Amino acid sequence: MRKMIILTEGMTTVQHAKTAINLICYKPEEVLALFDRTKTGEPVSPLLGIETNIPIIGSLNDFPEANTFLLGVATAGGGYPDEWRPIILEAISKGMTVVSGLHKYLSDDPEFVEAARKHKAKLVDIRKNDFKKVAIRKGIKETTLRIQTVGNDCSNGKMITSYEIALELKRRGKDAKFVATGQTGILLEGDGIPIDAVIADFVNGAAEEMVLRNQHHEILIIEGQASIIHPRYSSVTLGLLHGAMPQGLIMCYEMGREFTKNLDHVKIPPMKRIIELYEAMTAPLFPCKVIGFGINGRKFSQAEVDYERERIKEEFALPACDVIKHGPAELADAILGFKY
Amino acid sequence: MRKMIILTEGMTTVQHAKTAINLICYKPEEVLALFDRTKTGEPVSPLLGIETNIPIIGSLNDFPEANTFLLGVATAGGGYPDEWRPIILEAISKGMTVVSGLHKYLSDDPEFVEAARKHKAKLVDIRKNDFKKVAIRKGIKETTLRIQTVGNDCSNGKMITSYEIALELKRRGKDAKFVATGQTGILLEGDGIPIDAVIADFVNGAAEEMVLRNQHHEILIIEGQASIIHPRYSSVTLGLLHGAMPQGLIMCYEMGREFTKNLDHVKIPPMKRIIELYEAMTAPLFPCKVIGFGINGRKFSQAEVDYERERIKEEFALPACDVIKHGPAELADAILGFKY
Lengths: 340, 340
Prior knowledge:
Oligomer: homodimer
Helix content of chain A: 25-40%
Number of strands of chain A: 14
C-alpha cells in the first residue's frame, strides 16, 4: 500500500492543495503527513478546510515508513520552484517513489533520473503521456450511459462531484465507473488519461479512448475539466466533451464565484448562457442535456447552501446538490431516472 | 536558399500532399522535385491539380544540388510508414537538412539522430515544441485588427485563404502579417507555432502568444484550424479561437463536401448553424463576427464557383470569393472596411 508524504511546501491552502485535500478525504489510510516547512506543526484542518489529524512535517525523517512522496499541489503552468529540488532529491535518496502530477516532468530532469537510478527510487509523472490517436467516432456503445461533469470555470468541484456520484451509484449496486481525466482523479482511481497533458490534436481521441476502454460498465461518470468558455483551458474542455460525447451533463459551479479563477478581469457568463453553449456545442454530434447541478458551497453555511440549492432547482427545474453538504443522492437519482 | 526535394511517396494526391502543393505554388524557386517511386516520371499537374513543371523523381541522385529533404505529406495521426526509413536515411547520409511536419518526430528516432550526427545533417521537426504558457488575457492591443479564418471542417482552404488575403493586403501597402499556426504555413512564412502539437493546457496560451508577438503589425491574418464542431480536432479549433480572440472571422468551406473529411459517417452541420456556434462561443470573451466567406471550389468549374459565390453572398449578405479562382480582393476590401 502507498504510505504517502505529500509535499505542499508554501502552498498548504485550499486553492493550491486540491490533490492533497482529496487524497486525505478519500484515501486517509494512505496519507501519513503533509510536508511544508513554512507550516510545520500547525493543524491542517483550518488551513485546508477539512477534518483531519494528519500532521504537517518539515523533515522526511519523521515518517521513516513512508514509501511515496507526492508533489501534491497544482500550479498555473505546471512548474515547481527550484527550492523544491533538495527536498525531492532527499526523497529519492531514501528510495521513495516520487509522484508528480505537474506538467514539468521529474523524469525529464537528468539529476533526478540519475539519483533515482542510484537509489533504486521510482519517478512517476502522472501527466506524462505519449497518446497519439485521433478520434474515430465508431464502436461507441449506445447502451452505456455516459454522464459527464462540466463547469462554468476550472477548479469548482467537478472531480469530487463525479467521484461522489460514482461512489453512491456503487453503493446502490450499480456497475458505475468513475472515469478520471486529471491527476488527482487518476491518483484516486488508479487509472485514467491526464487529458490536459495530451497533445492538442489527440485530446478528442484520448477522451474517446477512455470511453472505449470503460464501456463494459453500465454507467460512466466522466470527470470534466475547466469550462467551455474558459480563456485558458477551453481547448481541454471541448476536446473532452466531443471525444467522450456524454448523453447527460452535471453542471458544477462554486457559489459566490463571479470571476474566472486566477483571471480576475474575466467575468463568468450567466449560468443559463453557459448551459446553452454546452448543449449547442454537443447537439450536432450527439443529443446531450444538462440534467442536474453540482453545487460547491464550501465558503458558505449549510443554510446558505440549502437556500442556493432551492433557488437553482427552481430556476432550472432540475435536481441539484452539494455532494459534500447534502450527499450525492439526488444526482444519483437523476442519473438512474435519465432516459436518453 | 532552400533547394528542396519533397517526399510524397505513395501520396502524390490532392488529399495528402497539401504541404507539397502549397510550397510548389508559393515558393516555386525552392522546390526542385517531388520524390515518389510509385509515380516517377509522371507529370505533377494532373495529380495535384496545379500548374507546374516540377518532376517526380525516384532517386535523390537526380538533384545533387538539393540541400533540403521535406516530408511533404499530412497523415491522420501524424506518423509515417516504415518504408520511408531508408529514404530518410539516404537523405541524411547526403548531409541534407531533413524537415518534417509530422507528429512522429525525426529527432526522437535514435537511428536518425546518430546518422545526422555522423553526416552533419540537420533534423528539423516543425511540430516539435515545448510551449508551456497559459493564456493571461492581458496586453492585447485593441488597435491591432485580428482576422482569423475558420471552417466547417478541416483541410478546406483556411491556410491558402489566409495567406492570399495577407499577400493582397501587403500589395495594397498595408502592414499585414500572416500568422501561421500549422506546419505548411510555418514553412511558407518562416515563423509561427504549430498549434495542434501544443499540449492541451497551453493551446489557448500559444494562440495568445502568437498575437502578442505580432501585434506591432497593423492587421494579423491568423490561420485557423479544423472546425469548432470537428469530432477529432475541435479542441485545437476552440483553443486557437479563444487564445487569438479575433474581432472578425472569414468562414472557409469546400464546395460539395457534405461529410467530415476522413469521417464519412459524420455529417457537417448547416453553415448557418456553424456560424452561430462560432459567434456564440466567442461572444462571452470578445465581440466577433463572421465578415466573409472563403470558398474552396477546386472540384468545380469557374461557372459553378461563380454561381456558388453569388448564392452564398445572397444568403448571408456577406462578401465571398474563392481566392484562387476570383482572387482575394473582395475579402481584403471587407477587412479594410471592417470597423469593430
